Amino acid sequence: MYDFSLKNVVVTGAAQGIGRSIAEGFIKNGAKCVVMLDYNGEKVAETAKTLDPEGVRTLAVKCDVSNRDEVHETFQMLYEKLGRIDVLVNNAGINRDAMFHKMTYEQMRSVIEVNFFGMVHCCMEVIQPMRDQNYGRIVNISSTSQHGNVGQTNYAASKAAINGFTRSLAKESARKGITVNAIEPGYIDTDMLRTIPAEKLEARLAGLPAQRFGTTDELANSVLFLASDEASWVNGNIMIVSGASVTS
Ligand SMILES: NC(=O)c1ccc[n+]([C@@H]2O[C@H](COP(=O)([O-])OP(=O)(O)OC[C@H]3O[C@@H](n4cnc5c(N)ncnc54)[C@H](O)[C@@H]3O)[C@@H](O)[C@H]2O)c1
Q: Is the pTM higher than 0.90?
């Protein structure tokens, strides 16, 4: 267990999958407020109600992280309401897989805009306040696909960009009590995984050292550690959480 009782946390893409489990983990570890942000407003409100029926620990907010103005307005509202943000988890992400010779420009652009610029937009909102308060934890969700994957030039590029950004922002922010880390999940059992055709998924499963996909809770546990006070000396790291399918 960690003590997040004095911490306001923002988790993007929290309506389902990994983001939902991350939000749940913070709630279970006593976070003061968990802002659950997602572009699917209805679903994130439903999820928040399931995880926090009294509505005392969570704030469900509809926001498209790829929209710079919307993100700015959302965080202005959050700072007015909460006063400060201690933890930001950039988890929102999409895939639009295709071989590059068949990939549309829109498939390339949308993935970079959500996965990379979505993270950038949120970081832009919190970085100065975190510097002013001399405290911050930023955890970015990357992917083992950043090492290269067939059909994922767009997705791999967006995640590799996250890693470079993470290492650089960590170096810029270390003296201000801020840590910036990324996690590269391997295959985690979510809707995103189910976008892979069944026979291909079967073949990938057979090749995994653990012979199973990871769970969203297993991934969330690593996020909680990096977001905790206990991880104060872990900074600028890219943590692979893949059940040994990819190792550093
Ligand atoms: N599932 C895996 O195997 C796996 C592996 C590596 C990395 N990841 C990464 O983990 C993160 C979560 O993935 P998941 O598997 O839970 O996917 P998911 O599709 O189940 O959930 C993604 C969530 O993000 C939200 N979202 C998408 N675009 C958004 C936007 N523009 N603004 C706000 N919210 C948005 C969706 O509504 C959804 O709730 C993603 O960044 C993904 O790239 C997943």
A: yes
Query: Coil, strand or helix: which one is 112?
Result: helix
Domains of the chain, residue spans: 8-240
Residue type, 222: S
What number is the average pLDDT over the span 140-158? 97
* Per-residue model confidence as pLDDT tens digits over 15-52: 999 999 999 999 999 999 999 999 999 999 999 999 99
The answer as to CATH 3.20.20.140 being correct for domain 8-240 is: no
- Cα 192 to averaged position of ligand 1 atoms, centre (Å): 7
CA of 207 from ligand 1 middle (Å) equals 23
Ligand 1 pocket mutation, candidates 22, 24, 38, 68, criterion most atoms within 8 A of CB: 38
Catalytic, 155? Answer yes
Residue 34's pLDDT is 98
Backbone angles phi, psi at 191, to 5 degrees: -60, -35
* 6: helix, strand or coil: coil
